[in-house]
Structures are given as C-alpha cells and as structure tokens.
Amino acid sequence: MTKVFIPDQILLTYTYNDRMIFGGIMPQKDALEVELSKDLGVDYFLQRRELGFINLGGEGSVEIEGVTYPVFPHDGFYIGMGTKRVVFRSKISASPAKFYIVSTPAHRTYPTRRLQFKDAVKMPMGDQEHMNKRTIYKYIDASVMGTCQLQMGYTVLEPGNAWNTMPAHTHARRMETYLYTEFGSPTTRVCHFMGVPENTKHIWVEPDQAIVNPSFSIHSGVGTTNYAFVWAMCGENQTYDDMDMVDMHQLR
After folding, report:
1. Are 223 and 157 contacting, i.e. CB atoms less than 8 angstroms apart?
2. Whether 71 contacts 57, CB under 8 Å
3. What residues in the chain have per-residue pLDDT under 70?
4. H-state helical runs in the chain
5. What are the CB-based long-range contacts (under 8 Å, 24+) for 73-76?
6. What pTM did the predictor assign?
7. Would you state the pLDDT for residue 228?
8. Domains contained in the chain, CATH given
9. C-beta separation of 22 from 52 below 8 A
C-alpha cells in the first residue's frame, strides 16, 4: 500500500488474506467516519468486525457511540463488534492525527478498550551486535485482553540498529501486515523481505507504506537507519510466539 495517509481522506485496503482491512484515516479539517456497509454486505462497518487503531500523528480524538475520547500520539483503541458509529478527528489541523486502523472478522463482542502507549506490554528484543536492538509494544494481545482474532502492536528500533525479525520466521496459522513509519532520517529507506524462504523477494519501502505478508511468507526488514513499524495479525492462532523459525541456510 504505497499511500496510507492523505489529509481528510480514508484509504483502506481489503485483503483476502484472512479478510483483513487496513489503512489510514487522517482527519485534518473534517471529521471522518468509515462507512463500508454496502461493500461488506452488512448494515454498518463493524456489524461483524472488530477494529484496532494506533495514532501515529498529532493529538486527535475518536467518538464511539456518541462518547468522545482524546487520542494522544502512539495511543490507540480496540473497538468491539457491533459498534455502529466511530468518528475520527484531529485536535489541531496543522498537526493532524494519523490513525492507522486494522479490522478483522469477529464472531462475538469484546469490550471496547482504550489502549495507551504507557500501558502496552513492553518486550525488549535483540542486541547491538546483531543490529536488531528494538522494543516491541503489544497493544492488542489475547494474553491480556479479549479479542476475536486481531493482534496489533508497535515495534521501535534503537538508533544504530537496522534489522527486524531476523533470523526470519513464518506462521502458517495467521497472516501479518507491516506499516513502516518514523524513519530515523529523511533519506532513510527500508528493504522488506518476503516470500517463501527458498525464493525470497524484496521491496524498497518509503515512510508510511504498508505491506501484506501472507501466512506462507517470511517478513523481515533492514533499514538504512533505525525506524519503527506497526504490525497486525489475524488468523486461527492467537499465541504471539507461535512461529516456525527459518534456518539461515534456507534463505535464498
């Protein structure tokens, strides 16, 4: 997805990989509401779906069923199935909020929940020797809250580190999307690796671009400087560390 955020627009992608919908909502002057009932064959967007989002821009707010909540940078929400009205706004048009949203099919309603960055499950990973020192922040995870299948979080690489998810892995029981963001410099680019281990492909990624990783695919990246990315998963298995590790000798 080469364009995720455009002022006063909603840009969404519907992938048939587990029927995930993901994309960006960037209200600047106007309030924005997702309305896809006709496209999905339902009466309203979240009639049979759940939704998560993380704000990657300035301060904003979200109105859920008539109640408005502030959403600060790097904060988010989980919104349960059956919620009829969700409206996104920015507090200051010169510094608009950038809501990265992910929605997946749901079979029951779990409580809507505010997700503040300070409360995310923090997992330090990697080391400087392997240039992959980073922190994973888990926002939506079945080990700490109710969710039908959506998992979502935010990973930040420390300065001087470039690799994520290497050694690589796959997880055949769920797919994953990456949104690369917050690059260490204006000229930073990330090379994302995907595909089956024996025949990988690569894609050069610019800031705020997203990639779909099918369940059979590795998903790894290396940047010219440090960066961050938002990951989201859905599928049959909600266990975060349910991974099939790939031997480095397999990679081609």
Report:
1. yes
2. no
3. 237-243
4. 37-40
5. 73/117, 74/117, 74/154, 75/114, 75/115, 75/116, 75/117, 76/52, 76/115, 76/139, 76/152
6. 0.94
7. 98
8. 9-115 (2.60.120.10), 118-250 (2.60.120.10)
9. no
